[in-house]
Amino acid sequence: MRGLDPRIHGLLQGRQDVDGRDERGHDGGEGMPMARTMAKNAASASRKSKAPKRVTRRYSDILYEVKDQVAWVTINRPRVMNAFREQTLDQLIDALRSTRDDPSIACAVVTGAGDKAFSAGGDFYAMKRLTWVNAAMWNDRMQGLAMTIRGLAIPVIAMVNGWCMGGGHELALWCDLVIASENAMLGQTGAKVAACPTVGATQYLPRIIGERLAREMIFCARRFSAKEAAQIGLINKCVPQKDLLKETLVWCETIKGHSPQTLRQTKKSLNFESDLLYASWQHGMELLAHVWGSEESLEGMNAFLEGRKPDFQKFRMRNKRALEHYLDGNARDLNTSPAMRRAK
Fold first, then answer.
1. Taking the CB of residue 120, how many other CB atoms lie within 10 A of it?
2. What whole-number distance in Å separates Cα of residue 131 and Cα of residue 293?
3. What is the distance between the alpha carbons of residues 163 and 169, in angstroms, rounded to a whole number?
4. What pLDDT does 3 receive?
5. At residue 184, does pLDDT exceed 90?
6. How confident is the model at residue 284 (pLDDT cuts 50, 70, 90)?
7. Domain edges within the chain
8. Which of 48, 61, 118, 191 is least enclosed, having the fewest CB within 10 Å?
9. Could you give the CA distance from residue 149 to residue 143 in angstroms, rounded to a whole number?
10. How far apart, in whole angstroms, are the C-alpha atoms of residue 63 and residue 57?
11. CATH of domain 58-290
12. Contact 112, 74 (CB under 8 A)
């Protein structure tokens, strides 16, 4: 009975209601049958239910609110540029999945707290703890969030303000629409910190901006301003920072006026081709598993946290020496048993 009007609740429990009527529903013999009382109060409850509701959930790393049929999901870690950790990913998944419990929700908006960053991607203090053994604990969460966003029956809008980098940019890629303020900067920084953007970037970027630009963005860690991103089709729209929320609300109101059935069916159809990339996602997850905990990845993340330039050359030179040692062994017949080696 939770959530019922107290008067109706009392009547259904057979207790005396707040107006002093007895459990039979009569007011001292003059009155009103229980059915009429229930109808009156049900009508009152119905009128109250039509008022706009604001629904919130409490989380540690994100903010969640449903207002005027729009679900607002905000990564609330501005001290670390809204970088996410395992708990953040879990909470994003939970909040977005909860929109399925309310069919009146027309769309969802994902954004970051403050005006400096949408999300800088994974929190390096979380990612430094990853290894090949525990990689699935991170990778499955990333893929789970992506599939949650893509699997929702409603459009999901990324409202980007400030830095949108690495895994944060992949989060924007998973969304259906992207609107960004003029101060936004979007990019893939994996090559700079020895991480691999195989959780959407390598799959979607070639289809969104073309193969050549995608390779430049990933190999050269190229960044795009919001204006440039709109020009190449990486985002839908670039607006002045002061207008970001207002313009996002215009999109939300537009979507609210459209058929939910059509939105659901067309989103599923639009996802068809990229859904066929699921095997590539699985492939990418295993590649990424071997990156976590590697010397190169730790050098990249530690250099970033220490504010220095990473030294990736030492790995190239070490690998060169290892290959030279291998080739020298071949030349000296070390790849056969000692009894069969040629005398020198």
1. 25
2. 4
3. 9
4. 42
5. yes
6. confident
7. 1-26, 58-290, 312-344
8. 48
9. 10
10. 8
11. 3.90.226.10
12. yes
Both tokens of 220, joined, read 């050269």
- Rounded (5°) CA angle 104-111-122: 125
For residue 133, give the H/E element and its range.
none
pLDDT at 282: 86
Kindly report the pTM of this predicted structure.
Answer: 0.81
- Reported as a single tens digit per residue, the pLDDT across 96-109 is 999 999 999 999 99
Whole-angstrom distance, CA of residue 343 vs CA of residue 8: 101
Question: Position 284: which residue type?
Answer: G
Structure tokens at 305: 């946290």
Q: Give the count of beta carbons closer than 10 Å to the beta carbon of residue 173.
A: 23
Alpha carbon of residue 93 to chain centroid: 7
**Residue 150 contacts by C-beta under 8 Å, 6 or more apart in sequence?**
174, 271, 275
Residue 71 or 20, more confident? 71
Q: Would you say the C-alpha torsion 252, 44, 55, 105 has a positive or negative sign?
A: negative
- The dihedral sign for the CA sequence 257, 258, 261, 263: negative
Helix (H) or strand (E) holding 39: helix 34-49
SS3 2: coil
- Residue 128 tokens read as 């430094």
- In this predicted structure, what is the pLDDT of residue 152? 98
pLDDT of residue 53: 64
Residue 59 has pLDDT above 60, yes or no: yes
Q: How many CB atoms neighbour CB 180 within 10 A?
A: 30
- β-pairing, 177-181 vs 237-239, is parallel
